[in-house]
Amino acid sequence: MSEPAQAKTSQLDSQQPSLEGVFARLLAYARPYRSQIIKALLLLLLATGLQLSGPLLIKVFIDDHLTASHYPWWPLALLFTAYVSGQLLSAFAFYRQSLAFNSVALSVVETLRLEVFAKVLRLPLAFFDRTANGSLLSRITNDSEAVKELYINIISLFLQNSVKVLGILLAMAILDWQLMLVALLLIPAVLTLMFAYQRLSTPVFQRVRSLLSDINARINESIQGMSLIQQFRQQARFQQQFSELSHGHWRTRMRNLLIDGLLLRALVDFLYLLLLIALLQRFGVQALTLEGAVQIGVLYAFLTYLGSMTEPIIEMVSRLNLLQQSLVSAQRVFVLMDEPEQAASLAEGVAYQPPKDASLLFAIDEFAYQPGRPVLSQIQLRVPAGAFIGIVGHTGSGKSTLMSLLMSFYPISKGQILLGGQALTQLPASERSAWLGLVQQDPFIYRGSIRDNIALELPLSQQQIEQAAKQAQLHEAIMAMPEGYHTQLAERGANLSTGQRQLLSLARTLARQPKILILDEATSNIDSHTERLLQQSLAQLRGQMTIIAIAHRLSTVQDADQLWVLHQGQVQQQGSHQQLLAEDGLYRHLYQMQQQEQQVAL
Amino acid sequence: MAKIGHFVILPNLIPALGLVVAIFRQLSWFFYQQRRRYGLSLLALLIIAFVSMLPPWITGRVVDAMAEGQLTSGLLYRYLGILLLAALVSYGLRVLWRITLFGASFQLGHQLRLQIYQRLTQQSASFYQQFNTGDLMARATNDVQAVEMAAGEAVLAMFDGLLTALMVLLIMTLFISWPLTLVALLPWPIVGYFMWRFGQQLHDSFNLAQQKFSELNERTQESLAAMRLTKAYGREQVEWQSFAQVAKEANQANQQVAAVDAKYDPAISLAIAASFLLAIMLGAYLIEQQQLTLGKLTSFTLYLGYMVWPMFAVGWLLNLLERANAAYARIEQLLNSPISIRPGEQDLANPNPSLELAITEFRYRPELEPALLQLQHQLPAGQLLGMVGPIGSGKSTLVQLLTRQLQSDSANICLAEQPLAELSEAALAQLMAVVPQDAFLFSLSIAENIALGRPDASQAEIEAVAMVAQVHQDILAMPEAYQTQVGERGVTLSGGQKQRIAIARALLQQAPILILDDALSAVDVQTEAQILRHLRQQRQGKTTIICCHRLTAVEQADHILVLDHGQVVQQGRHQQLLQQPGWYQQIHQYQQLQLLVEQGK
Fold this sequence. Notes:
Chain A is built from 22 helices and 13 strands.
């Protein structure tokens, strides 16, 4: 009697492309925007150059005019104009390059989203069974949003900042290349520092994060299990454990704080001051030895440049964590994009033999969702065109699975289903959906009017829509609504009854004029009024199309030409309602059980 | 997007100041508690503010000395020595303030979490109906973090930003030149105005972008939910087009945000450039007038660079405090919620008491129909009582009254004449063990889960109850047997396994009264029979109450109550009830048929 304990596995995280590969693949998305990127780069160079020319111009002013007390009108006006126009132009160029980079980044995100969504539409239903919609949703929307961060906050920032640092070094070299070499020391120093910091801090930081998630998990779990904790009077013990956990978190954070404190801003500021000392020392020595040859303007320009050199480097290194995070997000998107697709149908446009009539042949040797646990076996059944077949069985007998296979929701590994003599797998999806019309018990309702929900994307006339609604016995109910066919439906059809939703699904399917109608009513979740309407509807449709009705309630299908009684994935009985009732078997017991069910409230 | 908060609230400076006062007053207890850490860090910040005024000043002095040709080697190295000292001192103090200030704020997070957790353990079911888990979690995580930032980052922004700005302004006006200061700072209010305008534009376009993003989410969610329909009707192309439309709109909205966002950095650069230009121009004039030296002008431009951070700090501070204020209010509401469990004081008088139910009526709210009506029953100690009935018949209400999760004056329950309401929590826990409907397991080992109420239980005791609950073999089959971890990082158990572990857990309590509240629903009929057989042997002489849906679980009961609409409609032993026409008989027939059908007969 022991049930196997299953370890949780998340199907989506099975094989992951490497982060380097992810990065390359992401960059490839920007390829169509090459000319825009080149334009942005040129603008960036221009903007940085102009911006950095400012201190140089001030240097000229200080050395040629201020210290010399020499103020000729025209050169000064020229300097002033150059400075002002240079800075204005630089600001404008910065603005334009930022727009250009953003536009590329956002277009890449859009492309990525469209691709991943198209991919999701091509995935087999089996995939949706094992993957929560929430996690898919976050891949399509949030994770692709993280890619935007990568482009804007990382790639574009790295470009901007490296161009800036290089520009500063260039400007310094123009002024005094030896001094530039001193300032250059800052780069390896800061880089070494940052990488050392990452080495030291990453494990501690990860520990902090995992402890925090433990804390949150503990609170969450305690809330859920609070009545138990109280019943067993374990409040004090749980509080104690929580306190230890939270205190451990605090201690780890303090360790992280120490690393931050010793290595980050404080040390960079310290390095900056050391450079300042070196700078002053060099100028001072020059002044002492060369007597008055020191250009104060050069010192001024150096001071300005030095002040704006550390920030870009720090910014870049501190974004490395973000890089990691967005790559992981992109990785999740790519894993989804690389999921194997459904190969159960013929590609559109390939030549095929159309089905010759609305007959069906089931020849399924075995079908299993998970290997080794067959849900259906030995199903050999024929449905003549125009017949009305009812499929019944207790919960878990496999009747819904049979319907899913007919709709090609899952590929059949052993066996096949023929439609009008043609295997379903040999038909393109569009041909299949033209023949087979599925009526869901709890169909999806779109936001919009009843009319829209019946027509969906089809260009139907009001008359055709009403015709479908009448066939589905829904017309009267719709007319009773204040705005008739234009009544707006709430989210998920909350202002319709369960039965009305099912009838709407029937109308929607009938509007598409399928040749085979498949009715899925796998649970007992139907009221007797709706059931009567459904019965009427089926009685009228009978003969016009092949009908396959899966029913939990036997009364829905008792008029069928033939009933198939399923048990544990096999057809246990076949025959009409009267024939089956006469046998002492499963169908009769099912029937009696349902009779009994109506009498007693459970 | 971080820039939004910085500028949007700038015009609302006066109410914002009220905010500063409000949140800091609320946190004053904590500032007092951590006065050593805060005192140290503020002192360190103060000294740093002084020390960091030195480098620009000394640079100016060196420049002046050079310009006037008065620089000597001794003077130069003395200055450089002072700078080195300043560098070392500020390094040490920066490390110090970071550890003390953030250490204190982390401490606040820790303490708030503990207080919240403690309060949560004191609340009953009605509280948890009022606050859902997501809401409570948000308070215990995001809100705590927001308040923590008020006690750390906000204090830093306030003191460091304010101190730096004040010092720099003082030095610039008093020691260098006040007209120069005035003129050089002229561009900042203008840029401030533009920032504010950008902020408003950004706010609007950001809202639009957010809205488009949530539309994208909704559209995607809808598509995913409609996947079966899409596949069945072959509507993939239609779905894709509608998604593409929303994705495009989201892109356009984001482009709008980017268009505003891209204005910030150039605007700040322009402000800085204008500030410098003005400073140099007026500086040159003042130097010509002999009112300023070149060195002082150099110092001045360096100081000007110091003003950028405080400008940002104000916006950041207000943003942090606004968040913290709202967050603290939510935390306070949670911490001040009245404690809903009000236990009595008495110990249990009789260690193995009989149970008397005298319920005239019980209503959840006065305007509702009674959930229980006229229910009187005497249950002698040591009996096995069964309770059955359709959904909504009042079984669960009765169990909740028995376990004191619900209380009412018109529903009297006594234990050997001692009112249940007067028992202390400890006495109640000793008296009763309950297996609830949904078996909940903690992310602990299996052994710890079973020994939840008795952490000191021996392995032998644990295994003994696991055997009674028919789950011992299952546990042995798990990777680490009794030490196997349950939950996200461990194994996932089936519903039946969980229920049986929950039964073992309750059995370990060895309580005089054991209540199984529909606790066998996920267990198959044969296992159920084995569990019940062992249970009867184990609980010889002790009271057991089984509340269930499947009649097989109460076939051996000493007495069965059949409830319907809150009243006892039938009672007696299994065989007696089978003879009477009524719900019991009908449901028995139904379940027999169900058994047949499940076996395919």
